[in-house]
Design brief:
Blueprint lengths: L1 E2 L4 E11 L6 E9 L6 E3 L11 E2 L5 E4 L2 E9 L2 E8 L4 E7 L16 E6 L2 E6 L3 H4 L3 E5 L3 E6 L15 E6 L5 E5 L7 E6 L4 E6 L22 H4 L8
Antiparallel strand pairs: 1-2, 2-3, 3-4, 5-7, 6-7, 7-8, 8-9, 10-11, 11-12, 12-13, 14-15, 15-16, 16-17
């Protein structure tokens, strides 16, 4: 993230030690300033920050001003939004209520949810039951969490998500959610989900060698980058 006051770029690293199913969890946070001769410094947690956490394994972060936000597990049945102020290096959290989601009994480690911006606000896109029910949810945080929208995929587009294991891969600049299949099929593609119009668009990715599709178990990763990010390369002297 970027500290606009001191014009510094910083990296946040979270180290987690956890037992099976997160029954026991310890975490600590370190910050590295991207500058010549920079070094790691341990973050002193905020007085309102009480619980260790494990960031979502395949999660992403969003930035607003000098604050970076991401989702994390507090334990097997509780998750939260973690807020890191790049300038002050303070960490605070927003607990996601256990009533979150249509199916409140599923462990958070099995949920498919991630943080997005929706209408200029912090929100969570939850799609645990997209492949079997075609029903994702959007929860928005203002002073508290509220279920803003329950979407139902249009019948003519259900085949795009039915029985397909999809991963959340971020959002476009105009707010469309990007979903990608976990495994390679005969053709690799991504889905753009317009949350306002409830419309799915499928885009095939060309040029992947055919022999990859013959593998019994093949996974592929996808990273999105907007034009401003591609031009923001920082060179450091070592």
């Amino acid at each position: 993230g970027h500290d606009p006051v001191n014009d510094q770029y910083k990296i946040l690293c979270t180290i987690v030690i956890a037992s099976d199913l997160l029954r026991s969890l310890k975490s600590e946070h370190w910050v590295f300033v991207l500058e010549a001769g920079g070094s790691w410094k341990k973050v002193v947690t905020h007085e309102n920050y009480h619980h260790p956490h494990a960031p979502f394994t395949l999660g992403r972060s969003i930035s607003s001003g000098s604050v970076i936000r991401y989702m994390a597990w507090r334990d097997n049945y509780n998750c939260e939004v973690v807020c890191f102020d790049v300038r002050s290096e303070e960490i605070t959290t927003i607990l996601v209520p256990r009533t979150f989601g249509l199916y409140v009994s599923i462990p958070v480690t099995q949920m498919k949810a991630d943080i997005i911006e929706y209408g200029g606000k912090i929100a969570i896109f939850e799609h645990s039951h997209l492949k079997d029910g075609g029903v994702p949810e959007i929860w928005v945080f203002e002073k508290e969490w509220s279920r803003n929208k329950i979407l139902v995929v249009q019948p003519c587009q259900r085949h795009l998500v039915h029985d397909v294991e999809l991963l959340f891969k971020g959002t476009t600049q105009d707010g469309r959610v990007i979903l990608a299949p976990l495994k390679l099929s005969c053709r690799f593609y991504i889905l753009f989900y317009d949350l306002q119009s409830n419309d799915l668009r499928k885009v095939e990715i060309q040029g992947i060698p055919e022999f990859w599709f013959d593998k019994e178990c093949c996974y592929i990763d996808l990273r999105s980058m907007d034009e401003s990010e591609s031009e923001s390369v920082i060179y450091l002297e070592t």
